[in-house]
Amino acid sequence: MSENNLKSDIAFSDLNLPEAIQKAVTEQGYEQPSPIQAEAIPALLEGRDLLGQAQTGTGKTAAFALPLLANIDPNNRAPQLLILAPTRELAIQVAEACQQYAKHLKGVNVLPIYGGQSYTIQLKQLNRGAQVVVGTPGRVMDHMRRKTLSLNGLKALVLDEADEMLRMGFIDDVKWVLEQSPPDRQIALFSATMPREVKRVADQHLQDPVHIKIANKTATAANISQRYWIVRGFHKLDAITRILESEESEGVIVFVRTKNATAELADKLSARGFRSDALNGDIPQANREKIIDRLRNGKLDILVATDVVARGLDVERISHVINYDVPHDTESYIHRIGRTGRAGRSGKAILFVAPREKRMLFSIERATKQPIEPMDLPSIADINKSRVDRFKDSILATINTENLDFFSQMITELQQGSEVSSEQIAAAAAFMAQGETSLVLDEAAMAREAKSTHSSAGFDRSDKERGRGDRGGRNERSGRGDRGERRERSYVDKPVPNKQATPLKEHPDVPMQRFRLDVGRRNQVKPGNIVGAIANEAELESKYIGEIEIRDDYSTVDLPADMPKEVMGILRRARVAGRPLEISLFDGTAPASSDFSGERSDEPKKKSYSSKKRDRGAPGDKAGKGKSDYAQRKSNERRKG
Ligand code: AMP
User: Fold this and answer.
1) Atom 21 of ligand 1 has which residue's CA nearest to it?
2) Residues with Cβ within 6 A of ligand 1?
3) Distances (CA, A) of 528 to 83, 114, 348, 520
4) Which superfamily, per CATH, for 473-591?
5) What is the pLDDT of residues 141-150, one digit of tens each?
6) Which of 61, 83, 161, 255 to mutate to test the pocket of ligand 1 (most atoms within 8 A of CB)?
């Protein structure tokens, strides 16, 4: 629902809805009734007929469902509320909404019935009894004719999207159903437009109806800049990491499609050092509120959420909304991005779109009547610059906020007693503060990226222009012209082949496979640790352990192909740097939890560890003896111990 439609001075608690329904509404995350709800709910609770001119997105479903559900007698199993909808999708959607709203009303059943679904199933469900039936006109009529659906006990009838039912040729069916229903039933008719035929139905069947007209305000706020990135060349996780690293941001809401994805992505972002948490419907309301408070107070920066739980969320410091998964429909997009740009601030919205989801991008642009600009992912140079800037800022912040007398004194003494300059001392202190991980990303990767062809913004411009049709191919929008197209194509035409495992020097005949390990530079893992763990746990002679590449979040290792299942099981659980190896076949592309080393994900950065070096570096082999001895000794020790 658009923001303006949400504003009303009435609270749900003012509306006289039964407690069980209010509870469900709260659980849906609705904070305030929308204008149509504020007007329709009291009228329908009173038993009045209603003529509502409102579109999807205004909250009309709850506007009729909440009061009409409240009037249902759960002890009577006969259909009491019938909702007619033009399409099967809408019928299902409305039925699901009703199920949610009725979830604390004991004994109230909601049943969707629509064409295409087996009659047997519907019959069974109808026989079991459903007080609320949501259906398409044709199928409802069929059941009525077969006497499998009786409207004798009907209290209320809703015609949802009446103009659509007219457009789809159902108006006669609708009239027939109306005529078969008891004369004293209540009617609510909703229609986005009011064509003459719909008006005539209303005039004929509605008695002294309340009229409600809600203007459709789907346009998005002008203070939100909107960009999209086509998912190509990088994994979404890498892309979002780049964006989060280099864009100035405060609170960020990341939208994903499923509950599981919220937790998964929040974990991955936390592992990458971002203060993030998940928000989904499985989290009890009280905890959800705590999480939102943490975001509000700046204790949390990133919230990974589903559409449902983030509805109506009002946190001023949200600077960015990232649509990690595309929304189901344009309305959801509008809801999502409305979470930023609050209280007159400006906001940024970013949409990740897979090539096959491009139609959604066009639909959103059409619905919001606003262009969404293509964006390039921040380069490694951009990221390095922001890392350096942040580091400098933190030094300045420390100078401004901390008492440094003790350390100043210490540095003065150090300088007096040695030949070093204060810059050198400061540099050494910065080096120590940074710890083992490098502050900036690899220069070589930077150079490779400069040569690479991963520009995402230049994707399929021709397609996009075609899709837009009515806009007549305005090339100047990105100012990129065909340059971008050519760059993109060169990437698409020449996919980087998956890397094959390198043959062993000593045993080139042994077929090898490349495996991925869930530990990387970030876990401070060294090749020697990996050799040690594999040799130890799998009792594999190290001469059979091939090339190892360490990346930021994971590593790869070449091992003999077709290792026994049990060995793989052992290796999956084996721990290095306190983390399970989680060994899995490496498919040559960066896996979902791939690292963020800055290269294109399908070009692993090579940090090869030659077998010679490894022989020296492996634990337990200080004398430089063959690793077979080492592995053997280790396994013997273990057996003894
Ligand atoms: P509708 O117009 O019925 O299709 O509703 C549009 C969307 O707004 C649905 O996803 C509803 O769940 C949501 N919605 C309905 N009422 C409210 C409310 N009072 N506050 C926040 N969201 C709502």
Assistant:
1) 30
2) 1, 6, 30, 32-34, 37, 56-62, 311-312
3) 67, 63, 45, 13
4) RRM (RNA recognition motif) domain (3.30.70.330)
5) 999 999 999 9
6) 61
Q: How far is the centre of ligand 1, averaged over its atoms, from the C-alpha of 473 (Å)? A: 35
- pLDDT per position as a tens digit, 12-67: 999 999 999 999 999 998 888 988 999 999 999 999 999 999 877 678 999 999 99
Ligand 1 atom closest to Cα of residue 12: 19
**CA 101/CA 99 separation, integer angstroms:** 6
List, in sequence order, every residue forming a beta bridge with 348; answer none if it has no partner. 225, 320
- Of the candidates 249, 55, 255, 80, the one whose C-alpha atom is nearest the C-alpha of residue 160 is 55
* Average pLDDT of the residues in 162-184: 91
Q: 147 alpha carbon to ligand 1 midpoint, in Å?
A: 35
Query: Distance from the CA of 214 to the center of ligand 1, in angstroms?
Result: 14
Q: Name the nearest CA neighbour of 604 among 496, 475, 482.
A: 496
Q: What CATH number does domain 12-213 carry, 3.40.50.300, 1.25.40.10, 3.40.140.10, 3.40.605.10?
A: 3.40.50.300
Using CA positions, which residue lies closest to atom 20 of ligand 1?
30
List the single range of 26-35, 251-260, 407-416, 462-471 with lowest mean pLDDT.
462-471
* CATH number of the domain located at residue range(s) 224-378 in this protein: 3.40.50.300
